[in-house]
Design brief:
This protein is mainly alpha-helical. The chain has a domain of 53 residues. α1 packs antiparallel against α4 and α2 runs antiparallel to α3. It is built from five helices and no strands. The protein is flat.
Length: 129
C-alpha cells in the first residue's frame, strides 16, 4: 500500500468520504462498490483512482509463481473474447446524419447588458481565450 498517497487522500476527505475510503482499504467493499458509492457521495474520479492505486491490486485470482520461477497459465486463442465482451462487431461507421441542437438566438452582444443566455454563451467563449 502506498501510504503517502493514501494519507493525502484521507486528510482531504470529509467524514462520509473517509468512511468509504476506509471501508475499501480494509477490504469490506469491492472495487466496483467503491467506485459506485464514491460517485454517489461525490468523490472525484482522480480521488477514487488515487485510492485504488494506493491500495494496490485486489485481484484474488492472480497466478502464483511456482518453485521453479515459472508461471502456469494459458494463452488466449486468436478471435476469442473476454468475459463481458461481445464477439460480434457493430459494423462499419456510416457517413452523414443529422445533429439537431437547440440554442437561443443571442440579443445584442454587449458584455455589460446581457439579457439572455444566448448572448452570455458567445461572450463567455470569446473571453475564455
Amino acid at each position: 500500500m502506498d501510504w503517502k498517497r493514501f494519507d493525502r487522500v484521507r486528510r482531504n476527505s470529509g467524514a462520509v468520504h473517509l468512511d468509504l475510503v476506509e471501508s475499501y482499504a480494509q477490504g469490506r467493499i469491492s472495487r466496483r462498490a467503491f467506485v459506485r458509492r464514491g460517485a454517489v457521495v461525490g468523490l472525484s474520479i482522480p480521488t477514487m483512482a488515487a485510492v485504488i492505486a494506493a491500495c494496490g491490486d485486489d485481484d484474488e485470482g492472480s497466478p502464483a509463481t511456482g518453485g521453479s520461477g515459472t508461471q502456469s497459465g494459458g494463452t488466449a486463442q486468436a478471435g476469442s473474447t473476454t468475459p463481458g465482451t461481445s464477439g460480434a462487431s457493430s459494423g462499419p461507421a456510416t457517413q452523414g446524419g443529422v445533429i439537431r441542437i437547440g440554442s437561443q438566438i443571442p440579443g445584442a452582444l454587449d458584455p455589460i447588458a446581457m439579457q439572455d443566455l444566448g448572448a452570455y454563451g458567445i461572450i463567455a467563449q470569446s473571453f475564455e481565450f
